[in-house]
Amino acid sequence: DQQVKQNSPSLSVQEGRISILNCDYTNSMFDYFLWYKKYPAEGPTFLISISSIKDKNEDGRFTVFLNKSAKHLSLHIVPSQPGDSAVYFCAASGTGGYQKVTFGTGTKLQVIP
Amino acid sequence: DAGITQSPRHKVTETGTPVTLRCHQTENHRYMYWYRQDPGHGLRLIHYSYGVKDTDKGEVSDGYSVSRSKTEDFLLTLESATSSQTSVYFCAISGTSRHEQFFGPGTRLTVL
User: Which residues of B touch A42 (CB under 8 A)?
Assistant: First the structure.
């Protein structure tokens, strides 16, 4: 049962344009969401997060949007750069005590120069 | 960058042999995790630790055991390796938020 879904395994975008990566979740107990970026042969690195009390969080070129009613979040990268080419994982966790983080299957982004 | 190392970085072994992977941190973080990454599955939690000698199972714990005798070290053991355990293994640690995890560089394990 995949509780965090990234339905697009890959995405290609021209340099300078916007990249939009999507993520859907099924568990209504999730209240904290994260995006990680992973280059080949390296471990994932934390990119940006959002709490369920917000609907938007911005950090430089990266913005995460959360639509709780639709159980959907998205990561926007503007403008996209070739160095953004990587696999992006969406992740989610719940409330109360320790809650493990559940990861999606990842979307491979290619930014074409 | 968080101080996390994994050893070995690459290992090839045969079916039925025991294998131990080591994760070492210099951040003194309480929480440590072992994940495996496989195509089409993303990152799946194997085991985690919330303190010295305190561990619990994740979603894919069968065939794996862990130990944490010191804050800085978290060991993952495959008691009898199988080909289905061929994967890339990542260790992670949690900072104070417990949500943002910092990952090690990974260990690529091949079981023949």
Answer: 105-106
pLDDT at A2: 78
pLDDT digit string, tens, across residues B45-71: 999 998 899 999 998 999 999 999 999
Q: Identify the bridge partners of residue B108 per DSSP, sorted by sequence position.
A: B10, B88
B89 Cα to chain A: minimum distance (Å)? 9
How would you classify the pairing of strands B73-78 and B19-25? antiparallel
Q: Across the beta sheet with B73-78, what order do the strands follow?
A: B4-7, B19-25, B73-78, B64-70
Q: What phi-psi label fits residue B46: left (phi over 0), alpha (psi between -120 and 50 degrees) or beta?
A: alpha
The two tokens of residue B101 are 């995890």
pLDDT at position B97 over 60? no
Going by the DSSP 8-state scheme, the letter that residue B64 receives in this structure is E
User: Strands, DSSP E only, in A16-70?
Assistant: 19-25, 30-38, 45-51, 56-59, 62-67
Nearest to B105 among A6, A42, A104 (CB): A42
Candidates A53, A15, A19, A61; CA nearest to A33 is: A53
Segment (H or E) for A76? strand A72-77
Q: What is the DSSP letter of A39?
A: -
- Residue A83's φ and ψ, nearest 5 degrees, are -70, -10
pLDDT tens string A96-105: 656 678 899 9
Interface test with A, best of B101, B102, B107 (most A CBs within 10 A): B101
Strand A107-112 vs strand B10-13: parallel, antiparallel, or unpaired? unpaired
